[in-house]
Amino acid sequence: MTAQLQAQSRSRTEDGAQPVISGRDLSMVYRARAGETVALQNATLTVAPGEFVSLIGPSGCGKTTLLRLIADLIQPTSGELRVAGKSPKEARESREYGYVFQAPVLYEWRTVVKNVMLPLEIMRFPKAERQERAERLLKLVGLQDFGRRYPFQLSGGMQQRVSIARALAFDPKLLLMDEPFGALDEITREAMNDELLRIWQETHKTVVFVTHSISEAVFLSSRIVVMTPRPGKIERVIDVDLPYPRDESVRQSRRFFELTTEVRDALKGMH
Amino acid sequence: MRREAKGLKSERRGFSLPAKVSAFLPVLTVLVALILLGYPLALLFGLPLALRDMRDLRKWEKATVTAQPPQRLNGTTLTFKNPAEDGVLVRDNIPVDTPYTVSGDTVTLQAEPSTPLVTWGETPTPVSETIYRYDGDLPDPPTLYVGGTLAVGGATPVAETPDDVRVSFAFSGATGPILLDDEVLSAGADYTVQGDTITFAEAPSFGGELRRVSGDYAVLNDDTVVFAAPPSGEVRVAESVVRLAERLSGEADGTNQRFTLLQTPVVETEPYDVYVDDTPLPSDDERPEERVDGERATFTFGSDEGIVTVEGVPQTEGETYTRDGSVVTFTEPPARNAQLRGYPGAFVTDFQTGEVMLARAPPAGATVWTDAYTVYAQPGCGGDVIACFLALPQHPVPFPHWIAARIGPFFNKFPLNDERNIVRAVLYTAAGTLSALGLGAAVGTLLAVLFVTVRPLERALLPWLVASQTVPIIALVPVLLLVLGNVGITIQTSLLPTALIGAYIAFFPVVVGTVKGLRSVDPLALDLMKSYAATPTQLFTKVRFPAAVPFLFTSLKLAAAAALVGALVAETESNNRRGLGFQILGQVQSGNVADVWILLLISALLGIGLVALVGLLQRVIAPWERS
To answer: Is A101 in Cβ contact with B524 (below 8 Å)?
Structure first.
């Protein structure tokens, strides 16, 4: 049973010839007057197509830094990084990824549907297609009836779902998510987790997911990258061999508990 | 994180009103504030003026100015109008020697006078029913009796001056015949009467003397009188009449020079005619022949005696000056241009107490008196401070209901085809303000975009923009208008000057607000745009501009108020007759305080309206802003 699950997991990680993300010895050093801060040290990470990889660790472990490096929002001090076989800058300019922030970052002057259409406008999609995609994605995140609302009329969870729909709008192969459910309550978060998994399976995206929450990481991921701070570095990579699709029963399973413990131990620096 | 903060804010707290009521809230507030503040403020600013008027004795009403001749001769009893308690009976300025007592209006002689109390002149001969001619010169003033009863003379001059054009004149308090340059006009042929208004068939010539008989008669010239109505009995002219004059209190013991007028306070600054027995004292004051240059100590006056005053203060002979005939020598030279006067007769040393100082002590037992007495009954404005407040010619803050009463006439003052019509003025100012606002907003937004995209430009220009706002607009306006006037653009003919001046102060808040707005974008929102590989243009149009809109509208509300001020100031240009600015200036200059207040209210309402218009625009353009 276990071997079968591992095989399934492996098959997901190894079937693509070319990894979506391949980073080697990535370091990020912030220089300030007070001195240098090593945000990330010699991180090496490879993500295969279709994987759901979580980056977990306490504050200051460099997980957001790593995500922003992949997104080319910042540039590494040293190391090599390829995204979708290109340099991060080329990948960004050819719109290879969709980014979801911790906050929904909705544009308050746009209605929900227009927020989802924003990237499509920027990428100059034809108007009819913009409309069609936005409606389809709102349906995917269960907000088909809220398109005409303004963001302030939505709850925090709904706003975050809009944000996810927006990231998916232009159909990027890669989804970078930076603690998207961090600000939500536990109940909403678990519902969002279910939904995210459903979307991931429907769309076959590659997801890199930053989180604080061990149970969230275990529940969602096919692989968990455990990071530790000062300096921020990758401590361990744990394969999650729980079968997909995952539902509430997975949260109750013994294996879920074991993996949770394993991640927790890794976070404490115990091998 | 920002979104959460906004989410919390959306939870409205505190007291709120239904939307329909709150829309009128600004107007309601103004009205309530006006009523609650208007009355106390009117009293606060008006009462001190009223008190000042009350205390100003020069503005008091004279009850009696001259001693009246008796109305009736009845044995030894004489009836006077308003007699002074301690009067002195005089005839031809000579005190009557018969003893008498005064009680009420009645003076009772204790014995038959040795000479008749009235001496009659010629009887005037009637020229017409109402015009009588006297053979010789009439005494001045003439004392006329009709059938043994005293007649009262008087004619009221017209309020307006004839100017060859005006045909209608208003008289008040007179009902008798109309006199033009001492000619009696005939009713019907020369003029028609309607209430107080006289309309002439022909406009009276420029500078003509127009009067209307207000008493029983009026003097036409030195020998003719005209009666208001044909006299009912024999007309007689008295040549000398017994009058009641004012005795000065103080004992004439041969040394006393100081006497006191009975009726105080003495308000008149005119010298009093003071008599010692039957001799009038010289009443004129004298100036020295020499200039008072601060060095000279010796001065020459016209008379050999008298009281010498420096700056109205009497000097003591032997102490501060010595006299040698008409030459006065001071121990110290009076200060340069000090007022030096000689009073050869008498000098009023204290107007409040009515103290009169005579140049020479009258002989013992002499009667010292003045031929007129004056009673100042009450302040001219009324008996109390409220009456005086109500009688103020101009109230700094009029009562709200007075202002309200002016609104009707104010709006009807000029017809709609006159550019001074108030509705047209409001529309003109509104148009000027909106142009100024539009121009200011365009320039302001453009500068803000420049500043955000080219940062060094902001550092180079912003100090100058700040400096531009410290230039008083009132100093700038004439210069700008002069420049524009030279190329033929005036406020009278174009909105451009108003727009420029209004925009000059309106653009500044737009720059500051829009720069802040363009920079207010959430850094994550910028990251997101970067992740989409958006172009700089897209960044501006899709994110920075929309994010700046709420800031822009807040600035625009400030700018609307500023633009209105600019437009009003611009319209005060001297040749302009359009807009509220002109109206305010005009009413301020002509002192119509109530109208100024109405205009201020209208301006305030216009300002509120313009700001509300900006708010409405915001609701249409930026419906996501919940404010």
So the answer is: yes
